[in-house]
Amino acid sequence: MAEKSIKSEALTKIGKLFEQKRKALGKQYKSREQFIYNRSEELFGSEDWISLRHLCNIEHGKNWISIEKLIMLADALEEDPGDLFNEIVAIYRNFQS
User: Fold this and answer.
1) Residue 5: closest CA among 66, 64, 62
2) Interval 15-60: pLDDT, tens
3) What distance lies between CA 91 and its chain's CA centroid?
4) Closest Cα partner for 14 from 69, 48, 59, 47?
5) 3-state DSSP assignment of residue 3
6) pTM of the full predicted structure?
7) Residue 37: enclosing H or E segment and its boundaries?
8) How many helices (H) and strands (E) does the chain have?
9) What's the CA gap between 83 and 74, in Å, rounded?
10) CB of 49 within 8 A of CB of 77?
């Protein structure tokens, strides 16, 4: 896991995107803890798939997300991984212009 030492506006905006999509799933996913637990039960055979700290750091723009975790998070958010990646790229490019 690669933690960024410099605050990135793009990563912060991407983190907010993930958080909004998580909360849009419904009340049972409002807290990160419940989201991780419920999705573990519903989608990942009760296996650990992401830590609370890692999800928190991603949502706050403190960590990059690996491709593997991006795919898992997309599944958990009920999003197509390619579409989600395209949203991330669009946000990132906005801050690189």
Assistant:
1) 62
2) 999 999 999 999 999 999 999 999 999 999 999 999 999 999 999 9
3) 14
4) 59
5) strand
6) 0.88
7) helix 32-43
8) 5, 0
9) 9
10) no
Q: Which residues of 30-60 are buried (b: 16+ CB within 10 A; e: fewer)?
A: eebeebbebbbeeeeeeeebbeeebbebbbe
- CA pair distance 5, 17, nearest whole angstrom: 21
* Cα separation, 87 vs 81, whole angstroms: 10
CA distance 30 to 60: 15
CA-angle at 8, arms to 29 and 27, nearest 5°: 10
Q: Which residues pair with 14 in a beta bridge?
A: none
Three-state SS for 30? coil
Question: In this predicted structure, what is the pLDDT of residue 35?
Answer: 98
Give pLDDT tens digits for 61-95.
999 999 999 999 999 999 999 999 999 999 999 98
Q: With both helix axes pointing from N to C terminus, report the angle between 81-96 and 67-76 in degrees, rounded to the nearest 10.
A: 120
Domain boundaries, the chain: 22-96
pLDDT category of residue 12 using cuts at 50, 70 and 90:
very high
